[in-house]
Amino acid sequence: MKEQIPYFGDMLYTKTTFPHIDLQIAEQLLHKTKTPMIHTALRRKIGSLCPVTDEIFHTLNRHFNPLSLSVNQILISAEQVPDRIFFIQKGLLRGYYMGEKETVTTWFAGPDQFIIPNNFFSQESCNEYIQSLEDCSLLSISHHSCLKMSLESNDIAKIFFKLLEEKQLLSDARERMLRIPNAEKRYLSMVKLMPVVHQNVKDDTLASYMNVTRRHLERIKIKTSRK
């Protein structure tokens, strides 16, 4: 014989009691079944590095968490051991170190780019500062998650290898730019490669990236604007 389920009205007006619900267990079940947000830009970026299946992407995607930064906020300091990789959804950031007299900017990163801090995989001090130049929206993934997934999946390990290759290529591009002896040609090369940086970064920061003085950069800007 089937168990008779009490009618809701009877439960209100008789001595019949409501079934006990453990709210803590219910919350845990909801958390487990929660579907992670699909980050379209992240999917597109990873697909541009190497082809991955939807299953692999969803495995990776669920480990990314959102992070917001206000303008001029330090994301990582030089003494800090970096424990996260970042993907930029919106905004502009830079990496820099402290020179003898002023800061020296070594790179810029904008939307749809990854930031792998120095010494992330070796888990040693970063040796550079990472700072937001605008209000930023990021996604981040922990060192623990990266290591665990790389050991479990060759496809995911390949993604991180591709990210390291991209980081090296960007570093090589800056070195090639700095080898251009003529500062004006160096500036024009930078404008062509990074128009967003040229338009949105202060002259002091841009000059430190190009390895020229601010006054020299201002003269170059005036000269090139007349052409």
Notes on the protein architecture:
This protein is α+β, with helices and mostly antiparallel strands. The protein folds into 2 domains: 40-167, Sandwich (Jelly Rolls); 180-227. It is built from 10 helices and 8 strands. It has a 4-stranded antiparallel sheet with strand order 1-8-3-6. It has a 4-stranded antiparallel sheet with strand order 2-7-4-5. α5 packs across α6 and α9 (203-210) packs across α10 (214-225). The protein is elongated and about 75 Å long.
The secondary-structure class comes to alpha+beta
Q: Name the shape in a single word.
A: elongated
CATH superfamily of the largest domain: Jelly Rolls
What's the alpha carbon Rg, rounded to whole Å? 25 Å
Report the major sheet: 4 strands, antiparallel
Instruction: Please state roughly what percent of the residues sit in beta strands, choosing from under 5%, 5-15%, 15-25%, 25-35%, 35-45% or over 45%.
Output: 15-25%
Q: Could you estimate the helical fraction of the residues in percent?
A: 40-55%
Can you tell me the CATH topology of the largest domain?
Jelly Rolls
**Number of DSSP E strands:** 8
The side-by-side strand order for the widest beta sheet comes to 1-8-3-6
Distance between the termini: 93 Å
Number of helices, counting only DSSP H or I runs of 4 residues or more: 10
N-to-C SSE string, H for helix and E for strand? HHHHEEEEEEEEHHHHHH
CATH architecture of the largest domain: Sandwich
How many domains, as an integer?
2
Mean pLDDT across every amino acid position: 86
Low-confidence stretches: none
CATH first level of the largest domain? Mainly Beta
